[in-house]
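Researcher: Structure prediction, please.
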Amino acid sequence: MEKQSVILGIESSCDDTSVAIIKGRKILSNFIANQEIHSEYGGVVPELASRAHQQNIIPVIQKGLSNAGMSLDEIDAIAYTRGPGLLGSLLVGSSFAKGLSMGLGKPLIEVNHMKAHILAHFIDDNSSTPSFPFLCLTVSGGHTQIVLVKSALEMEILGGTIDDAAGEAFDKAAKMMEIPYPGGPLVDKYAQSGNPRAFPFKISSMKDYNFSFSGLKTGILYFLRDNVAKNPHFVKENLHDICASIQYTIVETLMRKVEKASKDLNITEFAIAGGVSANSELRKRFLAKEKEGWKSHIPNFDYCTDNGAMIAMAGHFLYEANEFGQLKSTPNPRMKF
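Model: Predicted structure follows.
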């Protein structure tokens, strides 16, 4: 039996320090240290994020190894997030990965964060695995893209946001209603008992497969301003309906583009990835498409938000293809596909 590679994956693109160890496609450990401090500021503060990564990285590595029951000597390669992300945060993860690589004499693997979100679908966790080619909607706080996935190493962006991402729209709308950060999950929670058609918001109609959410954010701002001027308690009295209406608009915007791409390319194999793929309404809409012949792939909740497991999974494919990184490489905050 062929030996399965053991990859240590390090994720530090934003405010989560995470380390995972994968053997073949099986995750042996996936440990994440969150940064609570950002809730005080209503969003991620880059300088504070990088400092917290410096404090967390060694304990997280130790915890990841301990949970997997492994030592560093048993690792075949170190995979890390090279980008995209916050420069200071990326520097911590990349510097530590390079130090491990040199100290252990193990190869280094550079991973694209957004590709890793997609490849998390190939983790062996008893969930469905997409067949190539498939379409993937990657939605997070910083990105919204429709990607044609031809293979584990060949992907093409068909369309993306021209301004704000869907996750940012959720969080900024929440902030306008004074919902604590991160607001996206709370908007989802409150929307469960609200009427999604209570307050109609305009759905943008961009060309091709592109998205725009800046107009929606402005529309929500004016809607809240005007209604609060008439009734200071408007948000509190209508919170669930407002959240349901905002969520419906964002998800409907995403689904219209997904459906267009599926029809145009005649592909019915579809996946979602990224932090917003944890949204209950988006997951429900995707699963409902199976009645129309789609094969919908929804990620395990553990692999929706940023995590080391997806980096390790991407590292597995790159290791098998002998695509290794270099010590002279620098983090790339705007790393492209």
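Model: The beta strands are 6-11, 17-23, 26-33, 77-83, 108-112, 134-139, 144-149, 155-160, 269-273, 295-297.
Researcher: Thanks, that helps.
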